[in-house]
Design brief:
Order of helices and strands: EEEHEHEHEHHHHEHEHH
CATH topology: Rossmann fold
Largest sheet: 8 strands, mixed
Shape: globular
Strand content: 15-25%
CATH class: Alpha Beta
């Protein structure tokens, strides 16, 4: 499969934002929605798309302000992302689907599954928190992020973003995403609503992930009936890149179990 950023995409206007998405795989097969992480783009989930069974239809989209999607004027929130995914699926006539989400994409996956128990078939999340407590250890890092810190961690991020986005404003996007990451309200993390998830859930995390602790992963597993937890040693937040073969094997196997 070619790099996702090189694939011809489609777009959908939602409010004053334009959302970019690509489709691949078997057109009439079971649908799998693949969602990237914060400040990322389609290229960040290429490893996940590659391991999805060939008889499935893949829809991979970019959140507002990310990749080739424009930011629009509305504040970013996980609820806004959820509604955007719903709009794309409605536009494509998709009624039943599974979701694979990394980080922010996984948080949106929890919200989708809790809101649509009759529509979501299976969920796989990677490095995805489900709640944010007032004393969460990740808060100081999230609240202090600025352009220099981000580019020190991801030196190529700005060039990729500016080469792709039709209305680039990196500082505005980072500020909007920082507010999303630290949102304690109902538009933010799914929190206790994860108990409403009825679809089979596979929680994946790297054992060295500083943003999603093993304690929080175990607590989430206890909240969702029948959830499975895969904790991968020697890997961090981007576990799908650092342990691609292991993640790929379990993602493919878990999705293939769906009826």
């Amino acid at each position: 499969m070619p790099e996702l950023t090189a694939m011809k995409g489609s777009s959908l206007r939602v409010g004053d934002a334009t959302l970019n998405y690509v489709t691949s795989g078997t057109e009439n097969g079971p649908t799998v929605v693949v969602l990237h992480g914060g400040m990322g783009c389609l290229n960040d989930i290429a490893e996940l798309v590659r391991c999805i069974p060939e008889d499935m239809r893949v829809i991979a989209m970019e959140f507002r302000g990310h990749g080739r999607s424009t930011l629009g004027s509305e504040p970013l929130s996980y609820a806004r992302y959820q509604h955007d995914v719903e709009a794309v699926l409605e536009h494509l006539g998709v009624e039943r689907f599974s979701v694979v989400g990394f980080s922010d994409g996984g948080i949106v996956a929890y919200r989708l599954a809790a809101a649509h128990p009759d529509s979501v078939k299976r969920i796989i999340t990677l490095g995805a928190q489900w709640r944010l407590s007032p004393d969460d250890p990740s808060l100081p890092l999230l609240q202090s992020l600025d352009r220099n810190m981000w580019l020190e961690m991801f030196p190529d991020a700005l060039d990729l973003y500016e080469s792709r986005n039709p209305e680039p404003d990196f500082d505005a996007l980072l500020a909007a995403v920082r507010d999303l990451w630290t949102d304690h309200g109902p538009s933010g993390y799914p929190a206790e609503t994860v108990a409403q998830i009825t679809a089979p859930l596979l929680i994946i995390r790297g054992d060295n992930d500083p943003l999603f602790s093993v304690e929080e992963a175990v607590a989430l597993q206890a909240k969702v009936s029948g959830a499975a937890l895969l904790n991968i040693p020697f890997a961090g937040h981007e576990v799908h890149k650092e342990a691609e073969q292991i993640v790929g094997m379990y993602v493919s196997r878990f999705l293939a179990l769906q009826s």
